[in-house]
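Note to self: user wants both folds in one dump. Writing first protein now.
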Amino acid sequence: VNKTINGQDPELVALESKRLGQRVHALFNGGQYREALDVAEQQMKLLQSAYGSDHHEYATAVNNVATLYQALGRHNEAEPLLQQASRIQEKKLGHEHPHTLASLANLATVYEAMGQKEKADALNVLVREMRRRWEEKQVTKRR
């Protein structure tokens, strides 16, 4: 029995998302931010239509789009996307999960670039503390 997600084959969605993600990274690493943004937006739309806008995979795609906005100096557009991504990730993965922390760290970078140093500093302190707690939990799990 092959279940579908919103009428889409989950394996095909995962494969296409992976292909698009690899393309985004290749373009980003090559400094082709506008082209990478186009592909990242395609991936985000694919995941939103397949999983909905409350899924952690979608949130990761939102974070990627925001990171590209950031790279293009479009901080005002990156900020709400990073807030959205971190909210979804916190709800679905937990507030100390590395994906949640990555979105929050990216948001701190955006605040810094927007001249909101106090906000950035406070968020960085929070991210460091949550990362420390996450790492402590991982050590405890291994014992």
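First done. Writing the second protein, which came from a different request thread.
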Amino acid sequence: TLMAGLRGTNIDDSDFAADGVQMRVVDLESIKAEGGDDDKLPLYYEPELIAQYWRRRPGAVAQRIVQLSTIAGSFITGIVMDLVTKKTSENSVKRAIQLREIVTSLGPAYIKLGQALSIRPDILSPEAMTELQKLCD
């Protein structure tokens, strides 16, 4: 019944895991006490451990910086060209679509940022707000 489901009395591993996957409880206190697995991202929020993880991977950090710079650079170049050629009005929808596609391609954190920006008329044009509001669906 509904109440049994809410209390969890009728739930077993088959309700959560796909066939062949065994569920287990992660004991965060023992992981913290042991110092965690140095080769993996921590399973809990600890800024210093996360920073250590990424310090050991400068190649991955550099790759992400290059990716972000390339994407941002091409978008900003398009905006600058619109300003120089005085075509900001006629290209505003095009740039708004590009912005939404860029945000979507960068991943969940950027999508969340786009969702937050989608209600900020003091920062974005109406066209950009309309496009970013599509991320809220």
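Dump finished. Worth passing along: The helical segments are 2-7, 28-34, 47-55, 58-84, 92-106, 108-117, 126-133.
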